[in-house]
Write a structure and sequence with these properties.
The complex is a heterodimer of chains A (about 60) and B (about 400).
Chain A lengths: L1 E4 L9 H5 L4 E3 L5 E3 L9 H10 L5 E4 L1
Chain B lengths: L4 E5 L3 H12 L6 E5 L14 H4 L10 H7 L2 E5 L3 E5 L4 E4 L2 E10 L3 E3 L11 E2 L4 H10 L5 E5 L3 H12 L3 E6 L6 H4 L1 H13 L3 E4 L3 E5 L6 E4 L4 E3 L2 E4 L3 E3 L15 E3 L10 E3 L4 E5 L4 E4 L3 H16 L12 E6 L2 E7 L5 E6 L8 E6 L2 E8 L2 H12 L4 H11 L5
Parallel strand pairs in B: 1-2, 1-6, 2-3, 6-18, 8-15, 9-10, 9-15, 10-11, 17-19
Antiparallel strand pairs in B: 4-5, 5-6, 7-16, 12-13, 13-14, 19-20, 21-22, 22-25, 23-24, 24-25
Helix pairs in contact in B: 1-8, 9-10
Classes of the chains: A alpha+beta (about 60), B alpha/beta (about 400).
Chain lengths: ~60, ~400
Amino acid sequence: MEVRIDTVACVGHGVCEALAPHIFEVDDQDKARLVAETLEEEDRGDLENAVNQCPEQALRLLG
Amino acid sequence: MSTAGLVVVGAGLAGVRAVEGARRSGFTGPVTLLGAETDAPYDRPPLSKAFLTESAALKVLRTAESLRDELDVDLRLGETVSALDPTTRTVTVGAQELPYAGLVIATGSTARQLPGMHGPAGVHTLRSHADAVALRSAVRPGSRVVVIGAGFIGSEFACSASHLGAHVTVLEAADVPLVRAVGPAMGEELGGLHGRHGIDVRCGAVVEAVIGEDTVETVRLADGQVLPADVVLVGVGAAPVTEWLHGSGLTIEDGVVCDATLNAGAPGVYAAGDVARWHNPTFDRSMRLEHWTSAAEQGVVAGRNAVGTGEPVTCDVVPYFWSDWVTDRIQFVGVPDSDEVVTVAGSAETGDLLALYRTGDRVTGAVGVNQRRAVLRLRVMIGQCADWQEAVEFARSTAVRRP
C-alpha cells in the first residue's frame, strides 16, 4: 500500500491532515506531506477517506 | 440489465462517490449512474475561478471510460429521471421503468432565479459547465458586470470578472454579506475582503428590475438608482432538485429528509450531496449542506448503505467549505450560529483573519483567511467536541500573522 501526493495539484486545504494527522501534515509551503514512516493495513480506511475528500484530488492510493 | 442493482440518480460528486463507495464495500452487482448533463462527472468549484480566469479545462472527476471499465458502471449521461416509486422499487427514465435494489438520490441543486429578471440575454446564473462557458465568453475587459447577491458564488465570480478587467458592482439585499454562511459578525468582517480586491459592494441594495429588450441594458434598484450592465450574474443561492420526487411519498422539506444513515425513509433509498437534509450526529441536528467535502463524504456513506453489504453506518460531518478570491482563501469549518465569535488573530482586510465560534463551553466553528494550517486542525477539534479554552489556545499558537 502506497499513497502518492500530487504536490502541483495540492493547495494545502489540510483535509487529509484533519482526517489522518498521524499520516499527513500540511507544511509551511501549504503542501501536504507524509509524516508516517510506514503505512499499516489498519490505516486503509483513513487513507481512503483522505483520498475521497481531497478537494483537489491530489491523493492516490496504490495497492 | 435484468437484475436490479444499485441505481444512482445524479452524476455529480456525490453520485460518483456513491458508486465508488458501493464498489469499495465489496458490492459486485450491477450499478447504473444516471446524469442529466452530457458531460462526464466534473468538478464544480473551479467554474467560478480558474475556469474563468485562466481558461482552465473542465476538470473531470472520473472519465466515462474509468467509470465503465474500472468500476463496471452502466453510465447513462444526458438522461433525466422523472419519478420514483418506492413500493415497486423503480425509477422512471424516459419511457423506461428502471428497477433498483438500492437507490442513491444525488440530484444536487440548481441556481435560484429571481422572478421576472431572466428574460433578456446577458442575464446568467452559475452552476453548470454550460453556465460557465457562457460567462467565459460574455465577460471581457471593460465589460460592465452587475452581480446580484454577495454570497460566495457571487463574490468569487466578482473577483474573477474583476481580474479579467471588467468593471464589477455587487448588489446585496441584506445589510451584511455572507450572513447565512458565516453569521453576521464574520459576514461584516469578510466584507472587508471585497474592498481588498477592489470590488464595489452595495449592501441593502434591493433590485427592482432587470431592463432590456433582447439584451440586458440596465439594472434598476428599489431606491431608483439605475446601473448600466452588459452582464448580470444572479447569485442568490441554490435550491435542491426534488421536483421529480413529488408523489414518491418521501418527505421533502428543503431537501430530501434523511436519518443519520442518509436513509430517506423508504427501504434501500438513500440521499447524498446538496439534495440531502439529514440528521448530522456530530451536531445532533438536521442540516442540508452545499459543500464539496460533505457531498464527497455523504456519497461514500450513501453508496455503501444503499447496497447493504453491512450494517448501515451514520454520516458524521463537520462541515467544511472554502472560497478562493483570486489570491485569498477563506476557509470555514463547523456551523455559523453560536453564542459568541472571538477573533483570535488578524483581520479579513489584512488577509490573516482567524476567528472561533463558541457554543456553551465548546468550539463549534472557525473561519480563517489564509490560515490554512489552523482551520483544518480546528475541524478535528470541533469533531471531538473540544473544550473552548483549549481551542483558543491552539488557535493563538498556530495562527499566521502578516506583518
